[in-house]
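Thread: quick sanity check before group meeting

JM: Hey all, I'm pulling together slides for Thursday and realized we never actually wrote out the predicted structure for the chain we discussed last week. Dropping the sequence here so it's in one place. If anyone has concerns about the input, flag it before I start.
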Amino acid sequence: MFKDQQGAVITVFILLIIPLLLVGLFATNNFSKTVHDYDVSLQNGVSEAVRNAAFMVNKNTLALGKPTINPKEAHNAFKKVLFSHTPEKQVESYTFVVYNGYGDGGEVYIFRKGNTDPVTSTIGAGYSAVFTVTTNDVVIGNGANAVTMTEPGCIAVVGLKPDNFLKNDEDADPGYRWAASTIVLAKDFY
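JM (edit): ok, ran it. Output follows.
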C-alpha cells in the first residue's frame, strides 16, 4: 500500500476540530444575541415608559394653553410601562425627571437598589431647561450629554441588573439606558 500514512492523522484531526469550531461559533453567536436583546429591550422599555409618562398632562393647564405634566401620574405611568417590559426585580436603579417648563420647575424621582420607595425631590421654579445625562443619573445643568427641554417633558435613566447573562461576574456593572420626551405644543406647528 502506501508507505506514508501521516495524511490520515491530519484528516482525523481536522474532522475532530470542525465540530468544536461549530459549537464555539454557535455559543458566541448566542451570547451576542442575548446581549443585543438585553440592550434593545431595555432601550425600548425606557423610551416607551418616558413617552407614556409625558402624556400625563394636567387637564386644567391644557385648557389654559400651557400644559404641564402631573408628576405623580407621570411617575406611576413610567413605572407601569417600564415594569411591563422589564421585571421589577431586575431594575437596579432609575432616575426619573418631570420638567414642567414655563419656570415652574418639576420633580425628580430616584430609585436605587434596596430602597422600597423612590426618593423624591423638587426642581425649583426658575431652573434652566438644560439637563445632563450621566452614566446613571440626570442632573441639572450643562455637561457632555446635555438635553435642552424647551417644553414640559420627562427624562429617565434606568439601570438593569446584568445577571441574566453575566451570572458568573459578581462585579458586573448594570446596563444603563436613557430616554427623553416632551409635550409637542400646537404653536410648534404654525
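AS: nice. The mean pLDDT is 79. Residues 32-189 form one domain.
JM: adding both to the slides.
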